[in-house]
């Protein structure tokens, strides 16, 4: 297979690699370089300023707020989403009533129905979901406050996105709503590959289903949970949080910067305030946070791989 | 080591025979009861979440048929009659038709480009040994975990300098570039699983490398291409961040941008029913396609994470 091999390899790689280098790799390298300049983005002239942007960043109150919110996203969202998804998928796959002559552990009736419905939000654009929920959260005539008054809670009419203390949680709830289904389906697929005799053995030994979950299901599913965790964290730090915060909260960034996140702050500094160099500096901070997050999760979650 | 703490299958089987004899009957009923309670509980919890998922969507569909007055007066009441004029207004006056067309063009172009270029790169990386193979592979893979926003600031000026800003073909090229990491990752793994003998036979028969790829390997890789194609279709159809930065001309807006623009402008236009009609219009085709191709969609979207 040597004949013309290298010509073929180069011919096949040159377009994809060139496109990738030009639009992805090169901008990444450039942005790290720009973070040491005073480039505005509006004019082609700039000069090196050393670590000035980084010094400015460490004194920037809004940067610290956005960092705090991004870290909160990266910690809370995976815990809540993956926790809920594990709970639901355990219910779907193991919570069924034992049918005569059937296997000891069965899924609930209609398990495929639940999986189909739960997956709905995953196929919708996060932008559409954000618009929909921004309207549902509307304090005057939104769907949520109307339900509250319908069940007699007229006095409880929160401002939701308008309340600096609530806005961030409202945004996070939307991300949970839209991502839980994906993980339910993912974990269900993982659970289905766990041999049934492991469950049968544990149950016959008198283990309760909850013991079974923590002693059998979770350890055997650990690899999937871990990669799901990293995936969710990257989403929560990146594109998804940009869309929900930018679309849903006023400003955007919320009342009194209460919902601003790093990725939105990068966008605003670059494309609203004409401070491209400073924006790339915050972007580098975001890169550090993302890589640190992935490294920590992989490190903490490392355990012996279980073969079954 | 956890697996050894649970009893091995052999003692469990003997336990099962004992249970059949009937000695630990009490344990059996206890488990049945536990199963029953759990079953009711799980159904309850699962139904509540199903309602929480469906409610907002059903509410949006219902709202799209109401008048503006009814939307604000009684958000949960059924529409007095089906106001299809909302839909007509959204389709023509609010330019939903243009946004649809733009989205179809952008996604169509980038999906084909992503699959062709992605499979070419993946095939070479999976099947050929050459210096730099691993480096290029990891260069592609690395793109999956980097925050895209960091690259977007310089990318805006790269695209602008090339005269590609606010153009459909510019957006297509950028979509392809940002879809390549996952596509290459997924398809490289897929091409490795295909048998090498078929390609070698074709090559011995005198087919060129290029011909072997397009006529033999690509058809064999069809299941993988479908999975990764669905994944990219949804990602590109729903893309919001890239067009927001690179495509600011209102005439070139894609669906997600157009809808956000529409939502923002309702502050002074006040055509809320039209906005909801637009939202539902954008939601329904994707949901319908998902329900029809449910199995393939789920496989396509979860395959990456399970690998």
TrEMBL record, chain A:
CDD domains reported for this sequence: TM_PBP2
The regions listed as transmembrane in this protein's record are 7-29, 71-95, 116-137, 166-187, 229-248, 276-298
Q: Topologically, how does it sit relative to the membrane?
A: Multi-pass membrane protein
Compartments in which it is found: Cell membrane
Q: Tell me which species this is from.
A: Streptomyces carpinensis
Protein name stated in the entry? Sugar ABC transporter permease
Gene3D superfamilies attached to this UniProt entry: MetI-like
Residues of the ABC transmembrane type-1 domain: 67-297
Q: Which SUPFAM superfamilies match?
A: MetI-like
InterPro entries xrefs: ABC_transporter_permease (IPR051393), MetI-like (IPR000515), MetI-like_sf (IPR035906)
Q: What's the domain of life for this entry?
A: Bacteria
Regarding protein family, the annotation reads: Belongs to the binding-protein-dependent transport system permease family.
The protein's predominant localisation is: membrane
Write the record's keywords in alphabetical order, separated by commas: Cell membrane, Membrane, Transmembrane, Transmembrane helix, Transport
Matches recorded under Pfam families? BPD_transp_1
UniProtKB/TrEMBL annotation, chain B:
Q: Which residues form the ABC transmembrane type-1 domain?
A: 100-293
Task: Give the protein family.
Answer: Belongs to the binding-protein-dependent transport system permease family.
Annotated membrane topology: Multi-pass membrane protein
Q: What is this protein called?
A: Carbohydrate ABC transporter permease
In which broad location class does this protein mainly occur, judging by the first location in its UniProt entry? membrane
Task: Give the matching InterPro entries.
Answer: MetI-like, MetI-like_sf
SUPFAM superfamilies the UniProt entry points to = MetI-like
Stored Pfam families: BPD_transp_1 (PF00528)
Q: Which UniProt keywords apply?
A: Cell membrane, Membrane, Transmembrane, Transmembrane helix, Transport
Tell me the lineage of the source organism.
Bacteria, Bacillati, Actinomycetota, Actinomycetes, Kitasatosporales
Q: Which PANTHER family does the annotation name?
A: ABC TRANSPORTER PERMEASE PROTEIN MG189-RELATED-RELATED, SN-GLYCEROL-3-PHOSPHATE TRANSPORT SYSTEM PERMEASE PROTEIN UGPE
Q: Which CDD domains match?
A: TM_PBP2
Protein's cellular compartments: Cell membrane
Q: Does the keyword Signal apply?
A: no
